[in-house]
Write a structure and sequence with these properties.
- The protein has about 375 residues and is of the alpha+beta class.
- The protein folds into 2 domains: about 170 residues, Sandwich (Immunoglobulin-like), CATH 2.60.40; about 110 residues, Immunoglobulins (Immunoglobulin-like).
- Helix content is about 15%, strand content about 35%.
- It contains 5 helices and 19 strands.
- Strands 4-11-10-6-8 form a 5-stranded mixed β-sheet.
- Strand 1 and strand 2 form a beta hairpin.
- The longest helix is centred in the C-terminal third of the chain and has 41 residues.
Length: about 375
């Protein structure tokens, strides 16, 4: 393809680009007469076309350019996904294997499948090519070829025409994610461990990424990539490995769980990305101590709030128990003293017993006769 830029002599801001391809036609030619953005035909911006549709559409006119003869020739329309010139990256520098993952629909004006056309010299036929982008393709210009080939058994002798179609795919916003590769281990206070992770770029543009890690308290953490830096370039649709090193705090207690926050922030010299484009991953690391004596010593030397609360509760219960016992003892002593006092106040002297001898014994002087008359 040859591109020419024409500029106005009186006004240099007014300019236009002319692009064309010099190619032998071998008696057959195809050209784009309409596409989904129309400027210019055969070169479309995917964002414009897909703004109101889910496919990129081209109307293509195929012409038999032979000037002599009257015999009609069958021409095969090769699906772009099957053409080596589009997908064989070893043979063609501008090929991309992902082009074979796109969906191509070739139809006639009645929207019926049109795998071939039959044309006599000077005849033309209009076909439509719809392309659905389904695979991962980096941003930029992507040129695919629609081949019109003579339908004969010996393909090495067949005449053909390759029509270039250029699709401009714009830049995606960063699409980063963080994945953990190795398991999260349990740790003991002061231990150092490493966790393997990856940052993946699902966008269609290479992204410069700042890797970072944050942890609170007396814990420490660091992050480093395979090249020894915190800033890495993650190519489109690829991933980069990195290592998170964690040092457990000396004050950590058995059963504690510490959160480690890992982030991957996109950087750009052209724009600043909001926080929503920063990928985040949280690691939950648990402290597990097998030495029971060490567990007790740690709890006593650096007790957690729950341990302090339990200890205070036990002290309060112990004081209450001792106070209750003391009160019960004092209550029993008082009860016994009151019983003794009640017994003293209730005593009285009993009179002497009266005997029969005392009742029947009278002195003679005590007898007095009474005259009843």
């Amino acid at each position: 393809m040859i591109e020419l830029e024409t500029i106005s002599i009186g006004n240099s801001t007014q300019k236009a680009t002319i692009a064309f391809t010099i190619q032998r036609t071998f008696g057959i030619q195809a050209e784009v007469v309409y596409d989904c953005d129309s400027t210019p035909f055969g070169h479309v911006e995917a964002e414009i076309c897909l703004n109101s549709a889910d496919k990129i559409s081209f109307d293509i006119d195929i012409t038999n350019t032979m000037a002599e003869g009257s015999t009609a020739t069958d021409w095969l329309i090769v699906n772009p996904k099957d053409l080596d010139r589009n997908i064989d990256e070893d043979l063609y520098s501008d090929a991309n294997a992902n082009y074979s993952q796109w969906l191509y629909e070739i139809t006639d004006t009645n929207e019926d499948p049109s795998p071939r056309v039959q044309l006599a010299p000077g005849d033309s036929q209009l076909i439509n090519l719809d392309i659905t982008l389904t695979a991962q393709v980096p941003e930029g210009n992507h040129t695919i070829y629609l081949r019109i080939r003579e339908d004969i058994s010996d393909t090495s002798l067949a005449r053909y025409f390759d029509l270039p179609l250029t699709i401009l795919i714009g830049k995606d916003k960063p699409q980063l994610s963080i994945r953990q590769q190795s398991a999260t281990p349990t740790m003991i206070p002061g231990e150092i461990t490493e966790i393997q992770m990856k940052v993946k770029n699902d966008g269609n543009t290479d992204v410069m990424v700042l890797l970072d890690v944050d942890v609170s308290g007396d814990w420490d953490a660091d992050v480093i990539s395979q090249n020894g830096a915190q800033v890495v370039t993650v190519k489109a649709f690829s991933e980069v490995s990195f290592t998170v090193t964690v040092v457990a705090g000396e004050s950590a207690l058995n059963g504690d769980t510490k959160q480690i926050f890992v982030t991957a922030k996109p950087l750009s010299e052209e724009e600043s990305f909001p926080e929503q484009y920063t990928a985040e991953q949280t690691l939950n690391i648990r402290i597990k101590m097998d030495d029971k004596f060490e567990v007790i010593v740690k709890e006593l030397t650096d007790p957690r709030p729950a341990t302090i609360a339990i200890g205070l509760g036990m002290i309060i219960l112990l004081v209450a128990a001792i106070s209750g016992r003391r009160n019960r003892v004092e209550y029993v002593d008082v009860w016994v003293d009151e019983d003794d006092e009640d017994s003293d106040e209730g005593e009285f002297e009993m009179p002497d017993l009266v005997t029969a001898d005392d009742d029947d014994a009278y002195d003679e002087d005590d007898i007095e006769l009474v005259d009843l008359d």
